[in-house]
Backbone:
């Protein structure tokens, strides 16, 4: 294999990689596009197999943020931060974690507003409070400090709205988006997934849950959910799969046998390869493109921090995700394309129009 083939290509604008010897952490910031406005996207902090994997995750996630902002009609570009930790966050002591956040804040500050971060896997509003001690370019600081809080509840509301739209498209339930009696499998019971599970249970769905953290499953089981092993998520018969963990759940091979009728969830980059969407569509499985379904967090953070929206305006805009998806489903049907393609086309039109 030649050298050129070993260097991955990317259509983004800038990617920085830094190492901090004191903490042993690697810091990746990827700015994919500033065409619609300054780039924004959360900070993901976790352990990666290699620095290359962290760069690959950051660049792919940043591209997804560009598409998400465009599809949601928000005046922002796409970016993402990844902190490759030397050990799981739970194993780091408070001072170590704080130093990691301080280094990250200094890196974000150097972008001077071209990139603003926010919470994602492994970070929360309290962490944004720490970043804000160094840089103003962090969305979602805690309500206790006067911030709007994390976008996770809005993301969960948007995802549940997406589940309803996709269920109606699939002709399941009462045909009107009701999920009563449907088997809804939520993968990942973190900030977003736990709330989606609550919303599904409140709507009388039969709830199935999977998480690598057994305590989170036990808590859900105490409220009536059935626990599924994390390795069995894509083999468990159900009506709706709701991916709310890390991405990459579905490749074409998994899509060929996935025993469900709907996929609609929060995880960014759920499709691991380009053919997965095609296989799902051919099997009649309704897929709600992740970057449309999970835009509630971005709507909350950008709405509150940039556009000066009230919580009511954020909620109304988040609920519009259902209408966007109805449009995407109809466009896919009309043109014989996948829902993923239809949603990408929608985002691309907004990006081209802005240019
Ligand atoms: P989180 O870190 O709070 O929760 C993730 C959960 O997934 C944890 O409970 C974790 O134990 C579990 N998990 C990890 N690997 C798993 C596996 N293989 N099988 C089952 N469970 C597993 O993260 P959060 O904030 O809930 O985000 C979830 C997903 O939604 C992420 O992909 C994130 O990028 C995406 N997202 C989050 C938004 C937000 O507002 N927080 C907005 C848009 C997307
Ligand atoms: N990380 C979340 C997402 O992927 C929320 C977020 C949106 C964070 C926009 C920062 C900026 O949508």
Residues:
């Amino acid at each position: 294999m030649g050298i050129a083939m070993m260097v991955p290509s990317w259509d983004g604008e800038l990617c920085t990689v830094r190492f901090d010897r004191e903490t042993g952490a690697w810091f990746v910031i990827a700015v994919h596009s500033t065409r619609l406005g300054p780039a924004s996207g959360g900070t993901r902090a976790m352990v990666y197999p290699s620095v290359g994997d962290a760069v690959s995750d950051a660049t792919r996630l940043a591209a997804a943020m560009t598409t998400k902002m465009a599809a949601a009609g928000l005046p922002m570009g796409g970016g993402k931060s990844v902190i490759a930790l030397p050990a799981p966050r739970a194993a780091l002591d408070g001072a170590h974690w704080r130093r990691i956040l301080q280094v990250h804040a200094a890196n974000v500050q150097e972008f001077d507003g071209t990139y603003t971060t926010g919470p994602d896997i492994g970070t929360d509003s309290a962490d944004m409070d720490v970043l804000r001690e160094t840089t103003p370019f962090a969305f979602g600081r805690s309500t206790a400090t006067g911030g709007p809080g994390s976008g996770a509840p809005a993301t969960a509301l948007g995802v549940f709205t997406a589940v309803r739209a996709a269920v109606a498209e699939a002709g399941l339930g009462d045909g009107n988006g009701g999920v009563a009696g449907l088997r809804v499998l939520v993968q990942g019971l973190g900030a977003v997934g736990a709330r989606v599970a609550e919303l599904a249970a409140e709507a009388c769905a039969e709830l199935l849950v999977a998480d690598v953290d057994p305590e989170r499953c036990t808590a859900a089981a105490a409220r009536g959910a059935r626990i599924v092993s994390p390795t069995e998520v894509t083999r468990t018969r159900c009506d709706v799969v709701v991916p709310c963990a890390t991405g990459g759940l579905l490749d074409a091979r998994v899509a060929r046998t996935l025993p469900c009728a709907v996929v609609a969830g929060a995880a960014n980059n759920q499709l691991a390869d380009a053919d997965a969407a095609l296989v799902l569509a051919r099997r009649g499985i309704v897929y709600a493109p992740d970057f449309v379904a999970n835009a509630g967090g971005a709507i909350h953070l950008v709405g509150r921090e940039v556009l000066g929206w009230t919580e009511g305006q954020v909620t109304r805009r988040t609920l519009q995700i259902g209408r966007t998806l109805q449009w995407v489903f109809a466009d896919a049907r009309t043109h014989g394309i996948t829902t993923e393609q239809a949603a990408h086309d929608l985002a691309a039109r907004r990006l081209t129009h802005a240019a």
Notes: The chain has two domains: 3-63+77-145, 152-354.
